[in-house]
Write a structure and sequence with these properties.
The chain is an alpha/beta fold. 44% of the residues lie in helices and 14% in strands.
Length: 463
């Protein structure tokens, strides 16, 4: 079965006209959808959308697997230094495909492959405590930054470099650079210091980079099958490049989400009913938010658009968020991630001392979690709240590759519907420049002064 998109409970004939989408509303998008598809095909053919072709890049796959295998043999610990798109995809796939306690297992029980630590923040307590668990001689750092100057990653690198040196290691032997193939501070450092390195293809932004060495190298280094991951994405490609948007799951869900947004539902909840898919929702949150939240449209007009992505986890958040989803404002669309086969299962047997639980006897845990998902979707339906599902027959590299690829194409198509550029992120630049100024980077002194002047002139209200 692979990955199936079920949008039954998005439609007005079941949900009602207030929040449901009618067939006529979908059909009305037809001409616009056709134009967006034509534009995407043209831009892909011109080399402007290289993420489409990443699953077919055999050279990068081979280079990544060779270096990954080498790191896996030479080191016991792999540490990713990166943030945003340089970390979220890796984290999502590692959690989904590796043993849930991979880093805690003895080496022989994890197949004698390294542990993987993904440091995606500059909280000093977290990084210090991770380093305390490691030894320099057996640790390699993957420094990941497309620009080569990401301030958080740069700061992490400085800490790692000093830590390695203080433990008597030659830091150049313990650092791999993943960055732009030609330019940037990290690429210059790799050249001058002879660092092992792999390129991030030009034109592939961070949030679309999971199928580049950004995601592939750390996963390959800890023994995960990245070839199967890319094979799943490649198998999904024909399905998400169909011209008829009603037969294309990526285009269709983008259209449904867009129409729901226009009906007053700007909050997009992703709710996996599987612990292993928990961080897929986190990866999707960046993809959807950074791509679609824009001040200006393609004509430069102020529009201030963008759905707000929210992550949840079934069944956990049935006991924390579903109350809001069922009875709160009519402003949410829920996307479930369902799994048919959980690979493991636990049966319920009667306990004579607890007869009130006899109704569970003869059932099992996989049956229960699937029942709870169905129950939640029906509760939403009866309350007039729309939902849809991506159904995976099992959690596998192929299915994860296909799902992530589908969501990337979905996001690009949604950008066309919203008439914005889904590949830029101008809203994060001001914060970057203010940070550079506050930290004393040359050329940004005026931005630091701007922040200090504003903060000093504010009458603080604190208790």
């Amino acid at each position: 079965m692979g990955v199936i998109f079920d949008y039954t409970f998005m439609m007005a004939d079941l949900v009602g006209s207030r929040c449901g989408i009618s067939e006529s509303e979908l059909e009305a998008l037809g001409p616009r959808a056709a134009q967006i598809h034509k534009d995407l095909v043209t831009r892909r053919g011109a080399g402007q959308l290289p993420f489409y072709d990443l699953p077919f890049d055999r050279q990068t796959l081979d280079d990544t697997r060779v270096l990954g295998a080498d790191l896996g043999k030479r080191f016991s610990h792999v540490v990713v230094l990166g943030i945003g798109g340089s970390a979220l995809g890796t984290l999502a796939l590692f959690r989904a495909l590796a043993h849930p306690f991979h880093n805690s297992l003895p080496a022989e029980k994890r197949g004698n492959v390294p542990t993987l630590h993904i440091l995606d923040n500059v909280d000093p307590h977290t990084m210090a405590t991770v380093l305390e668990q490691l030894e320099a001689a057996s640790t390699v750092f993957l420094v990941i930054s497309k620009s080569g100057s990401t301030v958080e990653t740069s700061a992490q690198f400085l800490v790692a470099c000093r830590w390695l040196t203080e433990q008597g290691a030659r830091w150049q032997d313990h650092v791999v650079a993943i960055t732009d193939p030609e330019k940037g501070g990290l690429r210059e450092l790799a050249r001058s210091q002879g660092l092992a390195s792999l390129p991030i293809p030009p034109g592939v932004g961070g949030r679309f980079s999971v199928f580049t060495p950004v995601g592939l190298l750390p996963l390959a280094a800890v023994g995960l099958d990245v070839e199967r991951l890319l094979a799943g994405a490649a198998a999904m490609e024909p399905r998400v490049t169909r011209g008829d948007f009603l037969e294309n799951p990526a285009y269709l869900n983008a259209a449904l989400q867009f129409l729901a947004y226009r009906k007053g539902m700007p909050i997009s909840v992703m709710m996996p009913y599987c612990d292993r898919l928990r961080d897929v929702a986190d990866w999707y949150r960046q993809l959807w938010a950074e791509s679609l939240g824009k001040r200006r449209d393609l004509d430069g007009r102020e529009v201030f658009v963008g759905p707000t992505p929210v992550k949840a986890l079934g069944t956990t958040d049935q006991h924390s968020q579903v109350q809001l989803y069922v009875e709160g404002p009519f402003d949410k669309v829920v996307t479930f991630l369902e799994v048919e086969d959980y690979d493991r299962n636990l049966a319920f047997e009667a306990c004579p001392e607890a007869p009130h639980l006899d109704f569970l006897a003869g059932h099992d845990m996989a049956e229960l979690i699937r029942a709870e998902q169905r129950a939640t979707s029906v509760a939403l339906l009866q309350a007039g709240r729309p939902s849809c599902s991506f159904i995976l027959d099992r959690v596998s590299p192929e299915n994860l590759g296909g799902l992530l690829y589908l969501l990337e194409v979905q996001t690009l198509f949604a950008g066309g519907l919203f008439c914005i550029d889904p590949l830029d992120q101008p809203g994060v630049e001001a914060g970057k420049e203010f940070t550079y100024g506050l930290m004393g980077r040359s050329g940004f002194e005026h931005r630091g002064a701007e922040v200090r002047e504003l903060l000093e002139g504010v009458n603080r209200r604190q208790l």
